[in-house]
Amino acid sequence: MKLAMLARNAGLYSHMRIVAAAKERGHDIDVIDTLRCYMNIAAHRPEVRYRGRSLEGYDAVIPRIGASITFYGSAVLRQFEMMGVYPLNESVAIGRSRDKLRCLQLLSRKGIGLPVTAFAHATSQADDLIDMVGGTPVVIKLLEGTQGIGVVLAETRSSAKSMIEAFGGVEANILVQEFIKEAQGSDIRAFVIGGRVIAAMQRTGAPDDFRSNLHRGGKALEVKVTPEERSTAVRAAKIMGLNVCGVDMLRSNHGPVVMEVNSTPGLEGIEKATGIDIAGQIIEFLEKNAKPNKTKTKGEG
Predict the structure, then answer these.
(1) Do 154 and 271 belong together in one domain?
(2) Smaller CB count within 10 Å for the chain: N or C?
(3) What span, in angstroms and rounded, lies between the C-alpha atoms of 171 and 60?
(4) 21 and 132, same domain (yes or no)
(5) Are 240 and 234 in contact, with CB atoms under 8 Å apart?
(6) 3-state secondary structure of 138
(7) Which among 16, 25, 19, 14 is positioned nearest to 4, based on CA atoms?
(8) Same-domain pairing of 142 and 36
(9) Rounded to whole angstroms, how far apart are CA atoms 244 and 63?
(10) What digits encode the pLDDT tens for the residues 12-53?
(11) Is 7 strand, coil or helix?
(12) pLDDT at position 148, please?
């Protein structure tokens, strides 16, 4: 196969592993800087151009689109879809998962366990928001935040009100969620490929930090997920329409609750924690599924 990977930094662990796995299995793969692509929006011959040439002849495209370039990256990926190239994850599915509110609304509609969540924009009704999620402590998140940035824990009502009012002062969209104390600063990431959980790790935050992001000093260990957690992860991936994703869950007293569905999950933490060749399984999935014009949405919706 001839593969294209949309990625800004070819030197990241995840990207190097995917390239190595593709080459080990006898495929050609080009790493293409997403922001250097430009497009010819033609009715009968859609085209993606890169460094003065047309990008043609690819069997599949692997989108590794950073959150900060979701809009442009999705547009480039959508153009590949219109050209009939098979995407590892579709542009519409990535868009669903990147919109935190839309993601939670879709999961909620299908009965997936979630932390009690309120959403607001620059509200003056801080007390009502706090009461809606069961009182303090609460987790307050900027809707546009990533990798633990823009996420704070408010342990008292006064601190929660101050934070909500502060975010309101900058006209921000915020999520206010119940704090799952019993998770004890740990979460579960289940890595889903093709409707199966192929690996899972438990991430625990650094001392005195309730966030479990590995790049913020958290640690990861392989974990055995329960049948309910496995089912929840697979269902969440299906609802988003993602072939490959990381589903982040907390273990609450009333079962697993989904925090996020990550459409561009990193490989380093989970490969090192589990010893599983996830990059190889991604390429294997493409070998089995990549066919021309097989995009479900054809870049629509």
Answers:
(1) no
(2) C
(3) 40
(4) no
(5) no
(6) strand
(7) 19
(8) no
(9) 11
(10) 999 999 999 999 999 999 999 999 999 998 778 899 999 999
(11) coil
(12) 55
What is the C-alpha separation between 262 and 244, in angstroms, rounded?
A: 9
Q: Which two tokens stand for residue 296?
A: 């479900």
Q: What is the DSSP string of 169-217?
A: HTT-EEEEEE--GGGTTEEEEEEEETTEEEEEEEEEPPTT-----GGGT
Q: What is the CATH number of the domain that holds 140?
A: 3.30.1490.20
Tell me 67's DSSP state. G
For 62, counting Cβ atoms within 10 Å of its Cβ (0-12 exposed, 13-18 middle, 19+ buried), the class is buried
Domain with 107, as residue range(s), is 96-112+182-284
The residue among 287, 237, 286 whose CA lies nearest residue 265 is: 237
Q: Quote the number of domains for the chain.
A: 3
Do 127 and 187 have their domain in common?
no
Do residues 174 and 140 touch, judged by C-beta distance below 8 A?
yes
**Which residue reads 């998140």 in tokens?**
141
Residue with tokens 């009965």: 111
Question: Is the same domain home to 124 and 259?
Answer: no
How many helices (H) and strands (E) would you count in the chain? 9, 16
Tell me the pTM.
0.89
Residues 62, 289: Cα–Cα separation, whole Å: 13
Give one DSSP letter per residue of 29-46, joined into a string. Answer: EEEE-GGGEEEE--SS--
